[in-house]
Amino acid sequence: MSLLEIRDLTVTYGSGASAVPAVRGVDLTLRAGQKLGVAGESGCGKSTMALALLRLLPASARLTGEILLDGEDVLTMKWGRLRAVRWAGASIVFQGAMHSLNAVHRIGDQIAEPLLVHGKVTPTAARGRVGELLEQVGLPAARAAAYPHELSGGQRQRVMIAMALACDPRLIVADEPTTALDVMIQAQILRLIERLVADDDISLLMISHDLAVLADTCDRLAVMYAGRVVEEGPAREVYDAAEHPYGRALSSAFPRIGDPASRRAPRGLPGDPPDPADLPGGCAFHPRCPVAVEVCGEQDQELREAGAGRHAACVHVGSGS
């Protein structure tokens, strides 16, 4: 059963000749209880897509397509229904906890706010629930009295996760949940997220630039480039043997355990992503692609089948190249 269906989602900033496409015709499906990762370099549109799921983009953004959450289109919801869905149906762990938390309010009050607004509980019950949530994410209940600056980066990220869990959502969108954390704390946060979504049967959509993290955490993986999904399939298969040249480049950018050669010379990818306001013709990746052929600069490629449950938008898929 599909909990979330994204159909031909396009997000454009501005209008007319100055219009800039940030997301271009994205189609993704997330089943109930599934974990879907979305990867790509900075500027590929993954965070814009995540914010679009709950209509959290500025008024200057124009959204077209469909975002079906439990069969309801988020893009056409009335304000009252959308407000309820943002907490009880789906919630988001924003990138950068220090900038997302209010510096002048205690964290307990910030976690309690959605409970009081949406849960219709008494202040006493909300305080009790805050303590439970903090302990659920590995913090003592007494930390409810702390201000954000009194917590470490990992502790603030745990607070953000507690806020996301407050109203028992069916879907959590985690946008770069381990940004700016050291490796040990990253691992703790990832294991925490995995445990919580498994224990509460929550679906997860996780955004990251790190394919290794997503392959280790998620069931399926989508790779985005220049606002489009260029590859999608089982997470470990995409990480180990990507079909699209961009997916292979992302995967090779990180050293692998047990592979000394990858530690000495991770390959990565030369050049920079294209300017969304001035995309190259044909496949947007072709100026950086090591296997581009003439048709790549003339014609964009749609996702095509690349094996059981796998799709990639590349002319070489199925050609043996």
Automatic annotation (TrEMBL):
Residue stretches making up the ABC transporter domain: 4-251
Region (Disordered): 255-281
Keywords: ATP-binding, Cell membrane, Membrane, Nucleotide-binding, Transport
Cellular location(s): Cell membrane
Family annotation (SUPFAM superfamilies): P-loop containing nucleoside triphosphate hydrolases
Main location: membrane
Molecular function GO terms recorded: ATP binding
SMART domains the UniProt entry points to: AAA
Bilayer topology annotation: Peripheral membrane protein
One Pfam family this sequence matches: oligo_HPY
PROSITE patterns attached to this UniProt entry: ABC_TRANSPORTER_1, ABC_TRANSPORTER_2
Family affiliation: Belongs to the ABC transporter superfamily.
NCBIfam families in the record: oligo_HPY
UniProt-listed PANTHER family: DIPEPTIDE TRANSPORT ATP-BINDING PROTEIN DPPD, OLIGOPEPTIDE TRANSPORT ATP-BINDING PROTEIN APPD
Name of the molecule in the record: ABC transporter ATP-binding protein
